[in-house]
Amino acid sequence: MKESSLNYMRGDCALLATAVGDLSGLPTYGVVDVDDNIQHVFVYDESTDEGIDCRGRMPAGEIKNNIQGEGLSIRKVSIEELQQVFGLNSYSNEEWEEAEEEAAFLV
What is the model's pTM? Predict the structure, then answer.
């Protein structure tokens, strides 16, 4: 497998979360700071109370670990919001395919 230019913990988390959500049907959530800026994006599985991101599945309460920002909280985010903040349409087909492969591994 070739080396990736994507970094799912530093900016490309919305791409991976969208791919995981598409595959699993689970909703997308964000870790937001005190000013409601999205610092990290993940998928939330309500049935197990777990978050899924590039680190794998973990208790939802731990999803904020190692995420920078003041007054972090979690809230549901829309695809439209992620498009506006992270520019999901700017990713190439190759990058989407790479994220979908990673998502399949995580789901």
Answer: 0.91
